[in-house]
Amino acid sequence: MLPINEIHTMDCLQGLTKMSADSVQCTVTSPPYWRQRDYNHKGQLGQEPTPEGYINNLLAITAQIHRVLRPDGLFWLNLGDGFYHSSGSRSKRAGATIAQDLLGTAYQPKELIGLPWQVALAIRSQGWMLRQEIIWHKPNGMPESVKDRCTRNHEYIFMFSKQPDYYYDPAAIGQPLSEATLKDKRLCNPCVAGPIRPQRGYPGAAQQGSRLLRPNGTLSTDPADPATASRQPAAQSQAWANRRSVWTIAPKGFKGAHYATFPTSIPELCIRCSTRPGDLVLDPFMGAGTTALASSYTGRSYIGFEINPTYVKLAKNRLLRELGLFCGQPG
Ligand SMILES: C[S@@+](CC[C@H](N)C(=O)[O-])C[C@H]1O[C@@H](n2cnc3c(N)ncnc32)[C@H](O)[C@@H]1O
């Protein structure tokens, strides 16, 4: 077994085979999307000439994720789509190849590839249960210069389980009740007259005993702290709604030299509802270490892989900067 609370500089397939079976409670990851970015390292995923090659390589990795995940664990996969052979410089590279979908139909130039769903269904055929697709809605998504379709501002987060029953805590990521529901509740129950709507955060978080992120970025476990207090009453009075399947989260650019990081809220939501404090979280494509950061903020352990040593150094410096003594020295 490899050391935990560490980002290992290696190909994730190689790293995963060194991990023990059933050792991880949850996996959260955003692999390289097919032919969208070059992460400047030999052996990187995403540079395959065809979508089929990409899916096959990804399936070898998800088979290992299945092996290392505990039976009651969850696997969260963030993927975005792309267009075949469109005018963007990123996809010009793909244009050199003849690509076809998994049913063997060749793509026309400009066609949406539909890769996230092809990947999801291929993973399902490995024995995973596809439990949910979440739409990550980006309110401040990148502008596109297209005039013959809508500008895209969403990606997918697929949630897979190994079996029908798994660990999931809905309160940990509950969301505020709507005004209409609150009004109904007050009418039905005069005791619920006060301001029961949580101000911010996830109602169940405080019960989990995790360190909480204050607005200024520091951490707290103190129940008297406003950041902690604002997350407590809601769960006690059930004044929260089950989180909906569209997550509106602004992509926050990480200021370091890695251009494809997801916002910390994405892994944080996944981790909070599918693990308990102290559980182990895996990210096979760590990039700038966002999953490691979210795991540490919520009091979970992490393990991850990153093929490019420059990004590993970047991630370790980021963890040291943001968490101080909570992590190891940068390599
Ligand atoms: C989309 S980025 C992940 C970003 C990450 N979620 C974050 O927020 O920082 C994908 C990362 O996977 C890495 N990568 C590509 N192929 C890999 C492989 N075979 N094993 C491990 N890492 C790989 C790339 O270098 C890149 O940093």
Distance between the termini: 20 Å
In quaternary terms, these chains amount to single chain
CATH overall fold name of the largest domain: Rossmann fold
Number of domains: 2
- Estimate the helix proportion, in percent: 25-40%
- The gross shape turns out to be globular
Q: Which ligands accompany this protein?
A: S-adenosylmethionine
Q: State the helix count.
A: 10
CATH class of the largest domain equals Alpha Beta
Q: Approximately how much beta-strand content do the residues carry?
A: 15-25%
How do the strands of the widest beta sheet line up side by side? 1-12-11-2-3-5-4-10
Residue stretches low in confidence (pLDDT < 50, at least 5 long) are 86-96, 191-200, 206-236
Total count of strands: 12
> What class do helices, strands and sheet pairing give?
alpha/beta
CATH architecture of the largest domain: 3-Layer(aba) Sandwich
Average of the residue pLDDT scores:
83
CATH superfamily of the largest domain: Vaccinia Virus protein VP39
Q: What's the main sheet like?
A: 8 strands, mixed
The H/E string reads EHEHEHHEEEHEEHHEEHEHEH
Family: Belongs to the N(4)/N(6)-methyltransferase family. N(4) subfamily.
Protein name: Methyltransferase
GO biological process, one term: methylation
Region (Disordered): 199-237
In a few lines, what is going on in this structure?
This protein has 331 residues and is of the alpha/beta class. Helices cover 27% and strands 18% of the residues.
